[in-house]
Amino acid sequence: MEVNVEKIMEDIRAEIKEKGYTADMLSFKEVTGKSTFKSEGLDDCDLIDTLDTANSLCMVPFDPPMRGNPIVVFFKKIIRKLIRFYIRPTVEQQNEFNAQIVRAVNTVGRYALDVHSRPDAEELGKKVEILELKLATANKENEELRRRLERLEAALTTDQK
Amino acid sequence: MKIIQIMPTVSFGDAVSNDARAIAKVIDELGYKTAIYAENVDNRVKDKHVHKIGKLQNIGKKDVVIFNHSTGTKLCYSLPEMPGRKMMIYHNITPPEFFRPYNARATKLTQYGYEGTEFLANKIEYAMPVSEYNASELRRMGYKCDMFIRPILIPFEDYAKTPDAEVIKKYSDDGYVNIVFVGRIAPNKKQEDIIRAFAYYKKHVNPKSRLIIVGSSGGMERYDAALKAYASALMVEDVIFTGQISFPAILAYYKIADVFLCMSEHEGFCVPLVEAMYFDTPIIAFDSSAIADTLGGSGLLINDKDPVFVSMLIDRLMKDQALRAHVIEKQRKRLQDFSYENMKNRLIEGLKKFI
């Protein structure tokens, strides 16, 4: 037996229209519009990644590897040795500063992650918002039931007549 | 001549990564030297073809570099500097607008991806997009090179593995209709529309039903939380979020699925549709992006997300055996188009047009 899918879909649409079926439900936007979901908040993964990167990059090397033409590299190494007395104290000072800053950022980051992981007023706020949304759903369903009851009563009255 | 692939990440179990590895195997069989070079490689991937990009060297002018493109990456900007002839396999990038309300990092990454794709428009000599939808997107971005559409190579032998018996036992033979969707928890996949349709179905059509949303929410935790809040706010029960699960468990969910419901608004190919076809699960899918390309006339393609319509269609699919058999039969025919041999031959045909 040949199955006509388009006809089946048309029949379904016709039935929906005839019987007046509607889906009066909360939309997803009504949930995501709540303050719970509005702010980006703290991105734990982003913070951890950034701290890891900062930790791995905070030390400036004295002697980074040199690549390229061997003759050019040879002369660069000589120059580097000659100016080391001047560069070294500056690099050491920078590394000390970087280490202090990264230590401070690590401490603040750990505190932020710790606070973020604790249930607090924000969680309670989320629960309240969900309850409000559930109440809205219950009200819509009650309204739908009331309308169906009215239709049934009207149909019953007509039958009795 | 070498034919190598480059990509930002080779993940474990990811469709793009699996496709790249399958391609490497085919190129190897053709007798060319080949490898995949990636900036990141998942530790669980054990494949002789896969290497970190630091090991990439000695690419000659006549060698072929295939760029597997599916996300934002600086490879878009380093590719033109590499020697060799350049081609792209385009899997598509999710538009950043989908991520904007939920994840700033993903928004930036996908925006970066689009910019990189546009940058390469006049630098790629040949493209093999995985769907006609992807091809049209490249053309819209100014690509004028020759293109050859080549759907993803899917390892069907993996689906014959043993499914998780516990999952099957838990969710079958209880008289419940199991509506399933498989895919990452991601805003473009519009899992909220699936929940909405299911809520109507469960409350007004068939209370003996459950919705199983299979997929990991990694990186999309805010969207995942919003979905769960939505299901809670709608006061609909039996909505199950599996999270990250094992491959045998995924197989089991396909096995117990009565209907595969997809409301996605952006897909470059959508491998789960083909997986549902493999498991003879009738598909109802919203017509967007590459969905129609992949279904190829099979499944039930809808252009209306009205929960009432979707619910009644699900009900019809469960009760009308002729319709159900018709849908499954068409899906079986479409599945043959994606057989390994067909897709391998298509890949070879596409490669030979360039090499």
Strand content of chain A: under 5%
Tell me about the largest β-sheet of chain A. Answer: none
Shape of chain B: globular
Element-level helix/strand string of chain A: HHHHHH
- Major sheet summary line of chain B: 7 strands, parallel
Count of helical stretches of chain A: 6
How are the strands ordered across the major sheet of chain B? 3-2-1-4-5-6-7
Q: What kind of assembly state do the chains in view correspond to?
A: heterodimer
The chain pair forming the largest interface, with residue counts per chain, is: A-B, 35 and 35 residues
The helix tally of chain B amounts to 13
Low-confidence stretches of chain A: none
Strand content of chain B: 15-25%
* C-alpha-based Rg of chain A, rounded: 34 Å
Helix vs. strand class of chain A? mainly alpha
Q: Which overall shape of chain A is indicated by the principal axes computed on the Cα atoms?
A: elongated
Spans where pLDDT lies below 50 across 5 or more residues of chain B = none
Number of separate strands of chain A: 0
